[in-house]
Write a structure and sequence with these properties.
0% helix, 203 residues, three-stranded antiparallel beta sheet, mainly beta
Amino acid sequence: NRSNLTAGTYYVTITDDLNCTIEKQFTLNEPELLVLSYTASSVSCFGNADGFASIEIEGGISPCQISWADGASDSIRNDLAAGTHDVLVTDANNCSESIEVIIPNLNPIRINEVIPTIPSCYQGSDGGLELDINGGVAPYSVSWSNGRTGASIDSISAGNYQVMITDDNNCQLTELISLGDGTPIYLTSLVTANPICYGEPSG
């Protein structure tokens, strides 16, 4: 008996006590190589756990068992966070292969810069705010707590303004932005002199 043979063609010769012989040829076949691949898509918003992945299996001996690092056993997932996920696939012959599934992330929505226009006079209403926005998926929809829309608003007074930015994936960022006021005019001193005589304009 022989064991631990690899796939291939073998020849065997059998000889009895009378020196009679017989030759036989036989072939050992092996299953197809277990090959793994996957398709994936990113999370919908930064920090979400809704990334998609589908494991595709070729070769091996069915049925195959799928084991994700988090304990799941499905071939299709739509609850994955961004990052790398290890997957082990084992076929009916206990042959196994592993693959790393990468779920892309999206950049978070960020206000890169706030460009303020301070009111020209104290308590004036000719101020403005302009936002430089990046990250997420453009284009962006911008709404302000005073009912205005757009990345730039004008004709406003000093104060706090809440802004909500929504990107094309419906991801949102909410921030509170403050606009300073113009410098008030202060009367530091007042010097007075009474008129010298009644009715005179000498005061």
